[in-house]
């Protein structure tokens, strides 16, 4: 899977930009583990404390690092549990974002190889993060994906899996707002795009990025040894919905003669999956030249496009779903009779990622409000509560099926203090609540809207006030444990007389007239 781990030259040639001439990047740039803001790469990197509640900021000792890579946030590995740690980032609802995560290990876990772990976006498993190879070459790794925000926040999480053997970490997290037309053939309601490769062919200079790419997508050089030529074209990228940088059209890869040109690209062997592929071309001759540059494109011997007429204005050929597996061979064959060589300027390949969905928003908001009224809560209570399935929040059980609801809450003996928010009553799919043996105080909220509630355990806490009468309205209740709190008043008769209810209120409360035991 290491093909996803593209390499970023990490002793970065800092960009010397004349920012006034380019559109500023719109987005959120988070320097994980940093305590102060820094300005580099033409953007303002914020410290991460406002976006994440778990983990520890760490400073790396590797000399010569750019500021963004010199700090990381590191997250504690749970013993034998899969657990996620999420950044929650404010976004524009329906905004299309390029999300980039950057990792540079810097031996923060001691002299062991970098941990291998997962990354998650909202409720979707995004990819495995394996920086081992890059780290051995003293390089950082980055991952890029394109996702549309369905709410006012998006979460990106790193997560310990069974193969994770030391604390996961992250160096940087970026969200760049993309223009509407970018990659708009993809149905972002059901899919995300996870970058496999993006190259500028025939080019061997430094990474092409902002401000050449107005969204700071990274176009890696793919110079190779084949002959390449400089271009005389005058490309207008506004004709391309994906808005590639002009710079990719300044040089191209060609074999210089009218013969089939074969290109093994992307370089890595790909898992069997469906991919989005976009290939960019522009004729490098002055437009006045007579003959046209026409060729066929095939991928692994399957026709991808026939009789492509490459003009100096440039042309893109994209496929929104193309199956690939293993190594990929792209062949450009000049049209019969043509004496003009084929060429290629740029290419992008993304894995189409089936989105995992989201927990019903009303439940998410309710659960977040409940969480916020606790004074301490489990480290992984951020991001989507239920998804991905194997990464639901500690103590949270969810329903199957298309509408994902929270059906049980078990935070027994978790050392919780604070109060129980009345918003718990908005989790209307709950069938059991286990909060016994904590230090929760305040009153017991009205739970009568929980029409499916069967089990309520609030024993061994410091709840005070009276037992709500309305508990008797919940027809499904069969077990209520309230002993060892600080409850007063009387136990409602409606509860005492309820058939089939196992009610425990003693010892350890202060009722004015003790219930018959
Ligand atoms: C990291 O370095 C910064 C600046 O030198 C310092 O303020 C911060 O306390 C350090 N953090 C840790 C965790 O050592
Ligand atoms: C991580 O990558 C290294 C180098 O490619 C590989 O040897 C190792 O098996 C990978 N680890 C996991 C858990 O996939
Ligand atoms: C993508 O954007 C372009 C430019 O705005 C527009 O012409 C085209 O119809 C859009 N395609 C889709 C599928 O929305
Ligand atoms: C490119 O085209 C623009 C307008 O179409 C023109 O102003 C400019 O001079 C051209 N540049 C070159 C190098 O031909
Ligand atoms: C890829 O997977 C599909 C279905 O899962 C299968 O039909 C196809 O043969 C596989 N292709 C390769 C090259 O393994
Ligand atoms: C293309 O035009 C430029 C000037 O616009 C000229 O310098 C160059 O020699 C021309 N190239 C070819 C291949 O005709
Ligand atoms: C593609 O076609 C060439 C020649 O037609 C053949 O030698 C080669 O085995 C084919 N490759 C695949 C993957 O089918
Ligand atoms: C290009 O593709 C067209 C249509 O598939 C085909 O008729 C033609 O023979 C191909 N040309 C070459 C040179 O392969
Ligand atoms: C609640 O979680 C604890 C572990 O935290 C477990 O021991 C207990 O069995 C769970 N109770 C229920 C009813 O699932
Ligand atoms: C109550 O919770 C504490 C941790 O908060 C734990 O040490 C203790 O064993 C628990 N008691 C019972 C009876 O479960
Ligand atoms: C529940 O959700 C509604 C909106 O759906 C909100 O108005 C209310 O404040 C929430 N909390 C409670 C306790 O009902
Ligand atoms: C129990 O409640 C009484 C009054 O309702 C209060 O004075 C006392 O501090 C509470 N005790 C605890 C342990 O919360």
Automatic annotation (TrEMBL):
Keyword annotations of the record: Leucine-rich repeat, Membrane, Repeat, Signal, Transmembrane, Transmembrane helix
Chain ranges of the Malectin-like domain: 30-351
Top-level lineage group: Eukaryota
GO cellular component: membrane
Broad class of the protein's primary localization: membrane
Pfam families reported for this sequence: LRRNT_2, Malectin_like
Signal peptide segment: 1-22
Entry's localization field: Membrane
Membrane-topology annotation of the record: Single-pass membrane protein
Matching InterPro entries: Leu-rich_rpt, LRR_dom_sf, LRR_N_plant-typ, Malectin-like_Carb-bd_dom
Record keyword Repeat present: yes
Domain Leucine-rich repeat-containing N-terminal plant-type: 362-399
Designated name of the protein: Leucine-rich repeat receptor-like serine/threonine-protein kinase
Organism: Liquidambar formosana
């Amino acid at each position: 899977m290491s093909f996803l781990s593209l390499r970023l030259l990490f002793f970065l040639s800092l960009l010397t930009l004349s920012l006034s001439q380019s559109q500023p990047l719109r987005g959120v740039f988070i320097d994980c583990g940093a305590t102060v803001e820094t300005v580099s790469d033409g953007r303002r990197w914020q410290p991460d404390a406002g976006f994440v509640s778990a983990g520890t900021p760490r400073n790396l000792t590797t000399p010569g690092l750019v500021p963004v890579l010199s700090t990381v946030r590191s997250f504690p590995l749970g013993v034998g549990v899969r657990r996620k740690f999420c950044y929650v980032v404010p976004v524009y609802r329906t905004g299309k974002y390029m999300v980039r995560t950057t990792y540079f290990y810097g031996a923060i876990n001691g002299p062991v190889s970098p941990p291998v772990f997962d990354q998650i976006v909202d409720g979707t498993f995004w990819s495995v993060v394996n920086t081992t190879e890059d780290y051995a070459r003293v390089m950082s790794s980055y991952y890029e994906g394109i996702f549309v925000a369905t709410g006012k926040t998006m979460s990106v999480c790193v997560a310990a899996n069974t193969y994770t053997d030391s604390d996961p970490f992250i160096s940087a997290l970026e969200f760049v707002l993309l223009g509407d037309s970018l990659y708009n053939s993809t149905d972002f309601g059901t899919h995300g795009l996870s970058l496999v490769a993006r190259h500028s062919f025939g080019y061997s200079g430094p990474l092409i990025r902002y401000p050449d790419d107005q969204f700071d997508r990274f176009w890696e050089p793919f110079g190779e040894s084949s002959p390449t030529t400089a271009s005389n074209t005058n490309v207008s990228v506004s004709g391309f919905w994906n808005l590639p940088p002009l710079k990719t059209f300044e040089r191209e890869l060609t074999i210089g003669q009218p013969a089939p040109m074969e290109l093994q690209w992307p370089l890595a062997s790909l898992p069997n999956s469906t991919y989005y592929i976009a290939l960019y071309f522009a004729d490098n001759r002055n437009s006045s030249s007579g003959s046209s540059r026409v060729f066929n494109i095939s991928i692994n011997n399957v026709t991808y496009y026939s009789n492509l007429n490459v003009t100096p204005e440039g042309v893109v050929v994209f496929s929104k779903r193309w199956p690939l597996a293993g190594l990929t061979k792209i062949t450009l064959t000049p049209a019969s009779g043509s004496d003009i060589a084929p060429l290629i300027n740029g290419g992008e390949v993304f894995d189409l990622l089936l989105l995992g969905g989201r927990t019903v928003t009303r439940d998410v908001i309710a659960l977040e409000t409940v969480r916020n009224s606790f004074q301490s809560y489990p480290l992984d209570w951020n991001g989507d509560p239920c998804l991905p399935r194997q990464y639901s929040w500690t103590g949270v059980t969810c329903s199957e099926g298309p509408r994902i609801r929270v059906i049980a809450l078990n935070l027994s003996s978790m050392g919780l203090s604070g109060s129980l928010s009345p918003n718990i009553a908005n989790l209307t799919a709950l069938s059991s609540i286990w909060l016994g043996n904590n230090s929760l105080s305040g009153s017991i909220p009205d739970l009568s809207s929980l029409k499916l509630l069967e089990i309520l355990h609030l024993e061994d806490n410091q709840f005070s006030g009276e037992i709500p009468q309305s508990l008797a309205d919940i027809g499904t209740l069969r077990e209520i444990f309230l002993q060892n709190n600080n409850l007063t008043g009387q136990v409602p008769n409606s509860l005492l007389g309820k058939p089939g209810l196992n009610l425990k209120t003693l010892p350890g409360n202060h009722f004015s007239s003790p219930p018959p035991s």
